[in-house]
Amino acid sequence: MHIEIFEDKKKTGExxxxxxxxxxxxxxxxxxxxxxxxxxxxxxxxxxEALTSxxxxxxxxxxxxxLDEYVELPETHPASFRRYLKERLIDIVHxxxxxxxxxxxxxxxxxxxxxxxxxxYSVDVAFVGIGENGHLxxxxxxxxxxxxxxxxxxxxxxxxxxxxxxxxWFAKLEDVPQRAISMSxxxxxxxxxxxxxxxxxRKAQAVKDCFEAEVSPLHPASILREHAxxxxxxxxxxxxLLKK
Length: 244
Known about the structure:
This protein is α/β, with parallel strands linked by helices. The chain has a single domain, classed as Rossmann fold, CATH 3.40.50. Helices cover 32% and strands 19% of the residues. It contains 7 helices and 10 strands. The chain has a 7-stranded parallel sheet, covered by helices on one side. Strands 4-8-7 form a 3-stranded antiparallel sheet. Strand 2 (34-38), helix 2 and strand 3 form a beta-alpha-beta unit. Helix 1 (9-31) crosses helix 2 and helix 2 (45-52) packs parallel to helix 3. The chain starts with a strand and ends in a 9-residue tail after the last strand.
């Protein structure tokens, strides 16, 4: 695991994008294609803006998988992660292959569809963030560190749903879905590299818990400490509670 700390979220996102671009280009050069996982949320704004502005990435030779999506939320909803990714990534750089989670389909059948597809790929790099409750993707605490299933249906806890409200995606808490389809912890950890971007003071406690407490399902993103190719990008606000 490698941690870097920057002055603000813009510099944090730019640094994470440089690493992401380097990893994508390397995978394309060595294997002719690159497969990546894309996350969403407010923490990814600056990162995706910088990454999609990076020249000389042959996006036509990339395959994109989607990290998580709400159950029963149509793509037209402002909080839809499919909509987010189309607006901030897909419609800008046009990856060669795109596999989105269709959250408004039957969730079990959708998981089975995606599980079959991803089984044929080796993921070069995952782009992720960390939730205010320490979640990785929508794997809220206590997260399942053991399931081998790539995509799973999860229940969202109160703190997770409150974060989505606080970020402005929903008008009231009752509007935030209670279930989602999420990539599992083990599937994320199978990625050859992981680029994790975590700005903002509201993530400071989660950052401290995940990187200074023991590795535990109670702090899901703490598992990143066990991945030699994980690159963590923090700003001075999200890292404020770290002792080291």
